[in-house]
Hints:
Helix content: 40-55%
Strand order of the largest sheet: 2-1-3-4-5
Order of helices and strands: EHEHEHEHEH
Radius of gyration: 13 Å
Number of helices: 5
Low-confidence stretches: none
Strand content: 15-25%
Largest sheet: 5 strands, parallel
Amino acid sequence: xxxxxxxxxxxxxxxxxxxxxxxxxxxxxxxxxxxxxxxxxxxxxxxxxxxxxxxxxxxxxxxxxxxxxxxxxxxxxxxxxxxxxxxxxxxxxxxxxxxxxxxxxxxxxxxxxxxxxxxxx
Length: 121
């Protein structure tokens, strides 16, 4: 069965790069442009993994992770942060919110796929 991934980023070009990489590896990908849209999509269908940016309008990645973790369907779903932020304070905030891992942009497609494969088992 094809694994599904929700990718959340306010940058259309970044979403395109992530979608291209993930679809090329055989994953089904759902896109959202911010945390509000992502939450709506996550409620309408269960995905196997969420990859989210940190800094977005309307609802940022930390708030999105907190709300997803409060939902029974996403309590144990892997959530990766894909962001330009690399400071320890931001990483700690992400970990406290429930992020499974942290990837710093610009990402290497091979590294992204390796990490995705690792968290999906």
